[in-house]
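2024-03-11 09:14:02 INFO worker-7 job=invfold-0412 stage=load source=structure_tokens
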């Protein structure tokens, strides 16, 4: 029993450390030794924006004006807003831009995949740019993304996301996750490809678009991977930028449940991800499914602790008690207190691991039930006497 406990404890610890620290170190080492440049050009291609939105009245006007402000010829841009059965003023706002060339489509509420399936066949640009409603765009973002399509091996491209500065440690900690994602995706692009594009801003060759299977949770993974298995690259372009708001932790929990459930779903939709056809298989298993196993490793470590030798047991047990205790303490610690810099990241980690465990619900409920409206501090309704739009982004220093 003791030998089994030691074995489980060590294997689970090693697997977790590899997923969290070992693989990023390996990825950084490989990226420095890879030369796989993108051959860009300055050709201005026709672009079709497709904005799938559900109850986006707080952001839609701002988003459309952000697109109009892009450093790109208007005559080469087509814009289609598809309302996924919105029940607020989304439809009214979209129609009000008809005189400026914005087209509008309303479909019954059935999820983003269904909305995109209805909208994308109606556009004609050489490049389709899928946009969420919330994010604002840097004026040069589109031009820098489109330049990447000068390389015939490029199938889809996304810009980097800069999270505007949050007011709390909770928002700052969830923002740190995106900085980690930026680091990972930049280095994957240097090697070959990422394993999906950003659903908030994704440019894909119109000729490569395929209909999404009903109930697809990760359209931003399924769609680009179809072209990936045809030999195309999926790029993350750091010279192009969009801005987003920080999420509060309970909203990040719901988003993470959907993302992790989508990874379970992808194995059913694309079993070739685990085969030799996946030229980035090591990276896929390490970056995506390595994270999925971390909460199970934590459970295995906790259970194995009971069977450890007497000298090991108290150290392992008290280490876990302190770790989870700090996570539980965090909601009681006010912002501005020094210990918050420790408790907040630990709590965020624990919550996201719990979200990964909750993602197995995808096997027991309808996938579309996992779509939840995100909650953002900047998206809270304004008083009736004020304009109901979010404030201008305040970019953190060093972003």
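2024-03-11 09:14:09 INFO worker-7 stage=emit residues=399
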């Amino acid at each position: 029993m003791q030998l089994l406990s030691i074995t489980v404890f060590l294997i689970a610890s090693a697997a977790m450390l590899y997923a969290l620290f070992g693989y990023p170190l390996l990825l950084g080492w490989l990226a420095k030794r890879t030369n796989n440049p993108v051959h860009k050009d300055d050709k201005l291609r026709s672009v079709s924006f497709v904005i799938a939105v559900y109850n986006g009245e707080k952001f839609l006007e701002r988003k459309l004006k952000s697109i109009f402000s892009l450093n790109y010829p208007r005559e080469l841009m087509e814009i289609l807003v598809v309302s996924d059965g919105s029940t607020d003023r989304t439809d009214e706002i979209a129609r009000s831009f008809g005189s400026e060339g914005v087209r509008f489509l309303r479909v019954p509420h059935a999820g983003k995949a269904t909305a995109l399936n209805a909208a994308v066949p109606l556009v004609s640009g050489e490049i389709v740019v899928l946009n969420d409603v919330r994010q604002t765009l840097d004026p040069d973002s589109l031009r820098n993304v489109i330049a990447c399509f000068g390389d015939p091996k490029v199938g889809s491209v996304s810009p980097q996301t800069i999270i505007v500065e949050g007011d709390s440690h909770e928002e700052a900690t969830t923002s740190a996750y995106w900085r980690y994602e930026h680091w990972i995706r930049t280095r994957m692009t240097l090697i070959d490809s990422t394993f999906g594009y950003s659903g908030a801003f994704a440019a894909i060759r119109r000729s490569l678009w395929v209909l999404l299977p009903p109930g697809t949770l990760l359209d931003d993974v399924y769609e680009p991977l179809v072209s990936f298995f045809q030999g195309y690259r999926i790029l993350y372009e750091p010279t192009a930028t969009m801005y987003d708001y920080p999420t509060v932790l309970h909203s990040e929990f719901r988003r993470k449940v959907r993302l992790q459930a989508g990874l379970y779903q992808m194995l059913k939709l694309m079993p070739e991800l685990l085969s030799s056809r996946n030229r980035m298989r090591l990276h896929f298993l390490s970056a995506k499914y390595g994270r999925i196993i971390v909460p199970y490793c934590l459970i295995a470590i906790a259970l194995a602790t009971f069977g450890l030798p007497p000298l090991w047991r108290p150290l392992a047990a008290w280490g876990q008690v302190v770790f989870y205790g700090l996570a539980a303490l965090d909601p009681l610690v006010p912002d501005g207190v020094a210990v918050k810099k420790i408790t907040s990241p630990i709590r965020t980690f624990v919550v996201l691991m719990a979200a990964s465990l909750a993602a197995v619900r995808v096997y027991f409920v309808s996938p579309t039930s996992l779509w939840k409206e995100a909650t953002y501090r900047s998206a809270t309704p304004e008083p009736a006497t004020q304009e109901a739009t979010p404030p201008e982004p305040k970019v953190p220093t060093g972003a």
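2024-03-11 09:14:09 INFO worker-7 stage=report msg="Strands lie at 47-53, 77-84, 102-107, 127-131, 136-137, 154-163, 201-205, 233-244."
2024-03-11 09:14:10 INFO worker-7 job finished
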